[in-house]
Structure formats: C-alpha cells, structure tokens
Amino acid sequence: MADVARLAGVSHQTVSRVVNGHPHIRPATRTRVEDAIAALGYRPNGVARALAVRRSGTIGVVSTDTALHGPATVQRSVEEAAARAGYVATTVTIREATTDELGRALDRLVRATVEGIVLVAGSDAALTLARGADFPVPLVVAQGDLTATGSAVGVDQLQGARAAARHLVELGHTRIAHVSGPLGWPEARARREGWLGELAAAGLDAGPEIEGDWTPASGYAAGLALAPADVTAVFVANDHMAVGLVRALVEAGRDVPRNVSVVGFDDIPEAAYLLPPLTTVRQDFATVGRRAIEVLHGMLTGVPDPGPRLTTPVLVPRSSTAAPSTAVRVAS
C-alpha cells in the first residue's frame, strides 16, 4: 500500500479510503489511486476487498442456547454447510427465543456487516419476527412451517408424524396417546396435527394427549399420567421425552413394547442403544443446513434456488413397538 501511495502522490490513509470504498474522495484523487493500483498490480487483503465491493463473505446464524438435539444439530449443519460454500459463519446464541432477544441478535449481526442470516429458532416469536420485519439483509428460517415465511427450509414434520402414527395403526393399535412438545412451537403443532390426521384417516378416535416441554422430565411425568390409562401405544414428539416416558411406564409395571408401544421423533444418537431400542422418526438435519445455505446463497446472488424447501423424514422401526398384546401388566 505504501508503494501505491508514493506512485499516486497521496497518503497511506487516502489509499486505504479508496480501497475501502469511502464515498468522500475527490474523483481525480480516486482515479490516481486506482491507476497506481493497476500499474503496480496491488492486491488488497481479503477484508479490504470485501469492503470495497460491499461483500463480507460472512453470514450470521442465530440459534437458541439449548441442549435440544434438533436445534443444536441444525445449527451445526448450517455452520458446516456455510464453510463448504465459502462463507464464514458468525453465530449469535440467545437464551430464549423471544421477540426482544431475537431482535437484538439480528441487529448485532447486521451491524457486523453479514451478508445474510439463517435463523435457527422454531418458536412462534421467531416466525412472527421473520414474517413482519423488514431486514436490510436476506433472512432464511430453518424450520418446517413454510406458511409462516417464504424463505424457510426444514423437515416435513406433518408427514413424519403421520408415518409414526401410521406405523402404530398398521401394527393393530387403536388407542394411541400423544405426548406433544410445547404447542408454542410450530414443529410441535405439526407433529400433533399429523398424529390426529392419521388417526382420523384410520377411523380412530384420538387417545389421551399430554403437552410436554421436550425434556426427559416432562416425558417421565407424562408416562406416570398415562400408565393407568387404557392405551396400548404412545407417539412422543421427541426422543428425549420418549426416554423419560419409557422409564415411567416400566416403573409403573407397563412393559415396553409388550403392554405399550412407544414411538419417538428425531433419532438421537442414543436411540438405537436404549432398552428397548427406540422406534423413531429420523430427521435429516444435514440436508436442512445445506438447503438453508443454498436458499440464502440464491437470495444473495439474485438466482433463486429451485430445490425443495422441505426434506422428508424417515421412520426407523426398532424394538419399542410391536403388535398390541392382551398380556396382563408386569407386576410393579
């Protein structure tokens, strides 16, 4: 840069301002500096180049501070997909997905000159903010409710839940309960809707329904409540709650799957090694992350991505489900 300044007859600071696209430079001065850059073959560093063309090469990721398998895995897959696409991901983690916290996180990323943002937060507050705000940069929401915002990608929660309920119906169960996630989450509502829809299609009434909070503790409480109920199967809205539910049922003398079949959702790494191994619905989080970056890249380049916005989850049958039995309960 010092050589450019000498050849153009200007200061080092003036060269820096020209390289960084500063607007308050006289045209004649800017021309001298640009001619000197061309003559010397000077190549600005990556940061300066990015600023000069108003491209930072950085995208923002907003995620909730949670140990939940789904959001944590989607966040990681978004960051990995961004790196493969040549972007640097800057992640802001928030404690709760409230409108205020989300707004502050998005403002922070915009001030950091990110080119676009991926929002990994499936709450209604996040979707309301994404739908109603006018952002200065493109925004993609990584969740499954495409009706909430046009720039969303995710897993087809409804079809995944229908597959889980259908599996139980095909085994012969007619009294199928549901432990939902918190119904302020679109994913929880979609899984509940899928359960209801599949039972209705089979001509069955819905069994008991209990709202959980995604944690094993809430699944355990639901299991204690359902243990005396006249049900032979339970569809649980995530695997962590299913873990708690199975323990509660067994402690109450209900064998899984001899007395009660249990299906989870997510296919956490531990699901195949539980006792019994858990039948569940596998979500392809790696594809969700890749698709979020592909859609965002299309928005940034002005070339809309034509690919599917929803990935289809897959039922993974294991030993926690079986045909209903007339066997008596195991003694507690």
UniProtKB/TrEMBL annotation:
Residues 1-53 form the HTH lacI-type domain. GO terms for molecular function: DNA-binding transcription factor activity; transcription cis-regulatory region binding. Keywords: DNA-binding, Transcription, Transcription regulation. PROSITE patterns: HTH_LACI_1 (PS00356), HTH_LACI_2 (PS50932). SUPFAM superfamilies: lambda repressor-like DNA-binding domains, Periplasmic binding protein-like I. InterPro entries: HTH_LacI, LacI/GalR-like_sensor, Lambda_DNA-bd_dom_sf, Peripla_BP_I. This is LacI family DNA-binding transcriptional regulator.
